[in-house]
TrEMBL record:
<feature type="transmembrane region" description="Helical">
    <location>
        <begin position="80"/>
        <end position="104"/>
    </location>
</feature>
<protein>
    <recommendedName>
        <fullName>Extracellular ligand-gated ion channel protein</fullName>
    </recommendedName>
</protein>
<feature type="transmembrane region" description="Helical">
    <location>
        <begin position="137"/>
        <end position="156"/>
    </location>
</feature>
<keyword id="KW-0812">Transmembrane</keyword>
<feature type="transmembrane region" description="Helical">
    <location>
        <begin position="279"/>
        <end position="298"/>
    </location>
</feature>
<dbReference type="Pfam" id="PF12056">
    <property type="entry name" value="DUF3537"/>
</dbReference>
<feature type="transmembrane region" description="Helical">
    <location>
        <begin position="246"/>
        <end position="267"/>
    </location>
</feature>
<dbReference type="InterPro" id="IPR021924">
    <property type="entry name" value="DUF3537"/>
</dbReference>
<keyword id="KW-1133">Transmembrane helix</keyword>
<keyword id="KW-0472">Membrane</keyword>
<feature type="transmembrane region" description="Helical">
    <location>
        <begin position="168"/>
        <end position="187"/>
    </location>
</feature>
<feature type="transmembrane region" description="Helical">
    <location>
        <begin position="47"/>
        <end position="68"/>
    </location>
</feature>
Length: 431
């Protein structure tokens, strides 16, 4: 009962827009789409999800590879790279399905997307996050639909132009139509699973980017150091939660995509390999699908890590400005004009030192001069401690302790490029 009340509150929390703000979540949680999101709410639905996964990710690809190997077909209809395509998509979809199953069973969609934490953020962040939900669904469709249309065009051409040289059962038209439909459904299911996890990761990172943008505005005013620290600790804890949820998926995807691309490069560059649009078109489409999904994950991780680490320089700038302003507040004496801020700071320091040597009213003068200095010194120490905390506690997305920032992406690119050149040297050779 409490969960239902909390859900209704989350949906109606922003600007009185009722359920229109998160209608996408309501749609994806409906019965029509629950099989896509791996519904684990009861044993029957869980069994149905696993059955659909087993059919489209395991059975159909295996049968298609065995039946439609087509070694006796003409050169245009042979499928020499089908094994790499089917293995790559099936392994990535299996990894995605297992990740989604664990997320759905442990958290649920709303809690997984941190909708239960929106009551702790500002109205501006809630509205922007609602907009990000819509953009993420558009991004998901913009990747899936073109890939599906391209694969549909290829398979329709392959079955329609292949004729009787492609194996069929009883009736060639019915057999080819059913086989083409099953293969397209399998492709759509596997790519949707993979892209869905990548887009969900991007969406969770988007919320934290919005929180960091809102958090950065506290440095525009003289905010309490303790409140700044508490807010940053909350954001850092959320980033650590996201890292723990996705670290196995990101690392496994990086390894699988790398192996898949090197295997594709090896078989297409070997001597005597038949490479053209009809034989290698599906392999190229599979490579684009996997690389683009990995790119979404790595770019989102690097973006939020860069945003989180930029807080350190912002805090240092805030600390510097606040320190200068604190000396300005002390002010010069009426008898001595001061040219600039540094002169005022030096004047106050020298005046205090001279007063120590005076014999009359020493305590009264010390009390007058030291109270604002003491107050600003305590404030300075608090700000310095906060800056030191930022410098020694870098926030961001990590994968088993390794920070995914721009330096890490450069390192990954250099390693991949080195391996690619080494492989090309072994297969093609450079003089």
């Amino acid at each position: 009962m409490a969960d239902d009340i909390e859900t209704e509150t989350l949906v109606t929390i922003s600007n009185g827009k009722s359920k229109s703000n998160y209608w996408i979540i309501n749609t994806l949680e409906s019965r029509s789409f629950s099989w896509i999101l791996i519904d684990q709410s009861n044993p029957w639905k869980s069994a149905l999800s696993w059955l659909i996964f087993f059919i489209f990710s395991i059975c159909v690809p295996i049968l298609a590879h065995i039946v439609y190997q087509c070694n006796t077909c003409d050169y245009s209809h042979r499928r020499p790279f089908d094994l790499i395509v089917q293995l790559s998509l099936s392994i990535c979809s299996t990894l995605s399905f297992i990740s989604l199953s664990a997320f759905a069973r442990k958290y649920g969609l709303r809690r997984f997307l941190f909708l239960d934490k929106l009551s702790d953020v500002s109205l501006k962040v809630r509205d922007a996050y609602s907009h990000q939900l819509h953009r993420s669904m558009k991004l998901l469709c913009s990747f899936i639909i073109p890939c599906f249309l391209a694969d549909s065009a290829y398979k329709i051409w392959w079955f329609s132009s292949g004729g009787k040289q492609i194996p069929y059962i009883y009736n060639i038209y019915i057999s080819h139509t059913l086989a083409c439909t099953l293969l397209l459904s399998s492709w759509l299911y596997r790519t949707s699973l993979f892209y869905l996890v990548c887009v969900l990761f991007k969406l969770t990172c988007s919320l934290q980017i919005l929180r960091l943008d809102d958090f950065a505005k506290v440095f525009e005013r003289k905010a309490d150091v303790g409140l700044i620290l508490m807010e940053h600790l909350a954001i850092r804890r959320t980033l650590r939660i996201i890292s723990h949820r996705f670290r196995a998926f990101i690392l496994s995807t990086l390894i699988l995509v790398t192996v898949s691309q090197f295997a594709s490069l090896l078989v297409t560059t070997e001597t005597g390999s038949l490479v053209n649009l009809s034989t290698a078109g599906e392999l190229a489409l599979c490579s684009v699908t996997l690389v683009s999904g990995l790119f979404i994950c790595l770019r989102s991780a690097a973006k939020i890590t860069h945003k989180a680490q930029a807080v350190t320089s912002l805090a240092a700038k805030w600390h510097t400005c606040a320190t200068i302003d604190s000396f300005d507040d002390v002010g010069p004496t009426e008898d001595t004009p001061v040219a600039n801020v540094s002169d005022r700071a030096n004047y106050n320091f020298n005046a205090h030192m001279d007063s120590d040597m005076d014999e009359g009213d020493e305590d009264e003068i010390d009390n007058t001069k030291m109270l604002p200095i003491y107050r600003d010194t305590i404030s300075y120490q608090k700000r310095q401690a906060l800056v030191s905390y930022f410098e020694n506690n870098r926030a961001g997305i990590t994968v088993f302790g390794f920070m995914l920032d721009r330096t890490s992406l450069h390192t990954i690119f250099v390693i991949e490029m080195s391996l690619t050149l080494w492989l090309l040297n072994k297969t093609i050779g450079f003089s």
